[in-house]
Automatic annotation (TrEMBL), chain A:
The keyword Repeat does not apply. This is AsnC family transcriptional regulator. InterPro entries: ArsR-like_HTH, AsnC-type_HTH_dom, Dimeric_a/b-barrel, Tscrpt_reg_AsnC-like, Tscrpt_reg_AsnC/Lrp_C, WH-like_DNA-bd_sf, WH_DNA-bd_sf. It holds the Pfam family AsnC_trans_reg.
Length: 152, 150
């Protein structure tokens, strides 16, 4: 699907402030509310806008710890990626699973209530995931920027 | 904070699509529109949701490459951290910056049109950041967000 400059302007405004009322976003994008609604709907149908989602603030639910686990997998095992991902999906505290080209093969984002909860999850679930040859942990201290927007 | 099964269901559903109406969500669970609306309002007041996210088809919009960078600062100290953070925040291609503990000091999520474009961002913007030391790049192949312990 093709997007033109007006579409990009609309997307920029939606990205920048997804909570704002449509009428305000339309004004910021310099289009009428009707045009805004019609174009946004068209971009949703065309798959350019895949979804507008709420995101859980895990801290508000008592999850104080967030760890990024960088995993190296055993590449001699052809099913390593698939089996690792299927097993990782079964761990509720895993909130994101990524695969990579580079020094790291996969990354799991794990949340826990506190360090002892993290210890439990790590020992009971993470260490028993299949085909891992190495794990490195990065503990999140602070989020400096979380724009999720792209320079359209 | 007390959440029951209906709350959990609502949270999951809104994390899939925040634009669903209270009426449509309520029908799935056999709940009236006003009751559903009150539930959603309460969840929002409890601060359960952070900022909404807009999922775009990045490839379709010409951003074919997402790279995660691990950055180690060459020199540390309060001033250099602040300088680094201010400068890195201003780079439009950098979506996320996280201060981390471990092998690296910062984790960055960077979008680019393609690998040559990424190289431009890396050379002109990242490698010139104040205090930047070791940089490790991993190209994102797939990403799956999970509902989490809800």
């Amino acid at each position: 699907m093709q997007v033109d400059d007006t579409d990009r302007r609309i997307l920029r405004q939606v990205q920048a402030d997804p909570e704002a009322p449509a009428s305000e976003l339309a004004e910021r994008a310099g289009v009428t509310p009707a045009t805004f609604a019609r174009r946004l709907e068209r971009m949703r149908e065309g798959g350019v806008v895949k979804a507008i989602r709420e995101q859980v603030d895990w801290r508000a639910l008592g999850y104080e710890v967030e760890v990024s686990l960088r995993v190296t997998l055993d590449k001699t095992e052809p099913r390593a990626f698939d089996e690792f991902i299927i097993a990782a999906r079964a761990v509720p505290e895993v909130i994101s699973i990524g695969t990579f080209l580079g020094r790291v093969d996969a990354r799991l984002l794990v949340i826990a209530r506190d360090m002892s909860d993290y210890q439990r999850i790590y020992r009971e679930y993470i260490l028993s995931l299949p085909h891992m040859t190495d794990i490195e942990a990065l503990m999140q201290v602070a989020t400096i920027k979380d724009a999720q927007s792209v320079p359209l | 904070m007390e959440l029951d099964d209906i709350d959990r269901h609502l949270i999951r559903a809104l994390c899939e699509d925040a634009t669903q109406s209270a009426g449509a969500l309520g029908r799935e669970m056999g709940l009236s529109q006003p009751a559903t609306w009150r539930r959603i309002k309460r969840l929002k007041e409890l601060g359960i949701f952070g900022p909404r996210r807009v999922d775009l088809d990045l490839e379709g919009l010409g951003f074919g490459v997402t790279v995660f960078l691990g950055i180690k600062l060459a020199t540390k100290g309060r001033v250099s951290l602040e300088d680094f953070e201010r400068a890195v925040r201003a780079i439009p291609e950098v979506q996320t910056v996280q201060h981390v503990l471990g092998l690296f000091d910062y984790r960055l999520r960077v979008v680019a049109q393609d690998l040559p474009d990424f190289e431009r961002v890396l050379r002109r913007r990242i490698m010139t950041l104040p205090g930047v030391g070791n940089v490790e790049a991993n190209v994102l192949l797939s990403e799956e967000r999970r509902p989490g312990p809800i």
